[in-house]
């Protein structure tokens, strides 16, 4: 399956951002990388971002907050939370939680599911 769109990939670990970007590129998507919640909010544009993948613990603005603010601007935005810690928070409705470590195919499946739900 090849799709078109832009994915905002937010993680404070460079290696994880690289893995996220490579996985979404393999699906025909363009990755926009952010190393912090602040960078993510600067990069977010409702008309330009089709999916948000965010780590929960970022330091500063959390992934929870990034998702909440992004959803306020784009209510139907698909969101995938990733974390090496138990979710332990209030995720927004219609989101996916993917625990670290994850396998590339698990991320790809989550991306497909998120974008398919948007098209439905």
Give a nutshell description of this structure.
This protein is an alpha/beta fold and 120 residues long.
3D architecture notes:
The protein has helices at 14-26, 37-43, 63-73, 104-119, and strands spanning 6-10, 30-34, 51-55, 79-83, 95-99. The protein has 120 residues and is α/β, with parallel strands linked by helices. The chain has a single domain, classed as Rossmann fold, CATH 3.40.50.2300. A five-stranded parallel β-sheet has the order 2-1-3-4-5, with helices on both faces. β3 (51-55), α3 (63-73) and β4 form a beta-alpha-beta unit. α1 packs across α4 and α2 (37-43) packs parallel to α3 (63-73). The longest helix has 16 residues, at 104-119. The two termini are 16 Å apart. The model has no long low-confidence stretch (mean pLDDT 91).
SSE blueprint and pairings:
Layout: E1 6-10, H1 14-26, E2 30-34, H2 37-43, E3 51-55, H3 63-73, E4 79-83, E5 95-99, H4 104-119
Helix pairs in contact: 1-4, 2-3
């Amino acid at each position: 399956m090849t799709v078109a769109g832009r994915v905002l990939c937010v993680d404070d670990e460079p290696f994880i951002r690289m893995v996220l970007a490579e996985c979404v590129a393999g699906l025909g998507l363009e990755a926009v990388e952010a190393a912090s919640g602040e960078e993510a909010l600067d990069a977010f544009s409702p008309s330009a971002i089709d999916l948000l993948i965010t780590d929960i613990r970022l330091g500063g603005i959390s992934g929870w907050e990034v998702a909440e603010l992004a959803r306020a601007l784009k209510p139907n935005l698909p969101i995938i939370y990733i974390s090496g810690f138990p979710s332990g928070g209030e995720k927004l409705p219609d989101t996916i939680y993917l625990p670290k470590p994850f396998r590339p195919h698990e991320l790809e499946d989550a991306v497909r599911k998120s974008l398919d739900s948007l098209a439905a």
